[in-house]
Amino acid sequence: xxxxxxxxxxxxxxxxxxxxxxxxxxxxxxxxxxxxxxxxxxxxxxxxxxxxxxxxxxxxxxxxxxxxxxxxxxxxxxxxxxxxxxxxxxxxxxxxxxxxxxxxxxxxxxxxxxxxxxxxxxxxxxxxxxxxxxxxxxxxxxxxxxxxxxxxxxxxxxxxxxxxxxxxxxxxxxxxxxxxxxxxxxxxxxxxxxxxxxxxxxxxxxxxxxxxxxxxxxxxxxxxxxxxxxxxxxxxxxxxxxxxxxxxxxxxxxxxxxxxxxxxxxxxxxxxxxxxxxxxxxxxxxxxxxxxxxxxxxxxxxxxxxxxxxxxxxxxxxxxxxxxxxxxxxxxxxxxx
Length: 337
Ligand SMILES: NC(=O)c1ccc[n+]([C@@H]2O[C@H](COP(=O)([O-])OP(=O)(O)OC[C@H]3O[C@@H](n4cnc5c(N)ncnc54)[C@H](OP(=O)(O)O)[C@@H]3O)[C@@H](O)[C@H]2O)c1
Known about the structure:
Blueprint: E1 8-10, E2 17-19, E3 23-24, H1 37-49, E4 54-56, H2 65-76, E5 82-87, E6 89-92, E7 95-101, H3 105-119, E8 124-129, H4 138-150, E9 154-160, H5 164-173, E10 176-182, H6 194-201, E11 204-208, H7 240-247, H8 251-260, H9 264-279, H10 292-300, H11 308-314
Parallel strand pairs: 3-4, 4-5, 5-8, 8-9, 9-10, 10-11
Antiparallel strand pairs: 1-2, 6-7
């Protein structure tokens, strides 16, 4: 039996065509509680079978172990998979909460070789700068990334959590195929400057955490319910009074889901696809899941259409959210705008 497959979208003006929904692999190695590795690996295969071709990882996820985990899958399907990874967040095994931001050219050159080795491939399809260090001129960092393209180590470049102005500046140095930043029903700050800049430049937008890190699906209500090392415990909008206040924001999502016989996750994913149309840009959301059932549910949402009245009911949600996306917003685009 052949499964319904996804339509495709192009990353940037000269990037690859990928399924309109990608897969975030981060949770398979860290951050969101214990993982059944066999099921996670089966989810990778199930994704490809359904037309998902953009697979997202980073050197920081699981201290490199996420790249190692998905490497065999990438190699086994090398001509069908578009592998995206990232550099810039320096971590320490002896202090899992430590985050150093490195954008200097020497670091970029060392990081790409380490990612290539862990993935076991000879070229990375899409290489992102994960976070911006404003102390390093963008021309230097993106210049070093462009050298990797010329050296054949990387095919296309991406940036994450940069402002619209930073995206424009980088795009002059080398074409940027994709901007990856948080964008969902309840995280819309990117619509101020990053989204319009991407639309104008023809850069594809890759919304991360399109399910609000799971919160928009209703699968957890507060950080206190989560494992002790779950990263959502440190994110202001999931804690204490903020979480309690934000739970009510799920009501319109649930109402639409019930009336349509779909799930809250599907409402959230359909919203981000349609919101991109308003801004006139290409989006390839990368919901993260480690389970085949959820993968099927999520990919089914890629072609769902919400009605005007449903979109209107979701419009106020982001403006009512209590709490920031991160404890330190200086490392996000909106924190520097
Ligand atoms: N560039 C950046 O700075 C950045 C930051 C964060 C994430 N990312 C990337 O973006 C990807 C996606 O973001 P994310 O994982 O943070 O958040 P997300 O996609 O918004 O949500 C993921 C969470 O939702 C759960 N989930 C997925 N589908 C579900 C469904 N249909 N019903 C109920 N629960 C569901 C997942 O649990 P299960 O796994 O148990 O299904 C997981 O806990 C990551 O994997 C990573 O590759 C990038």
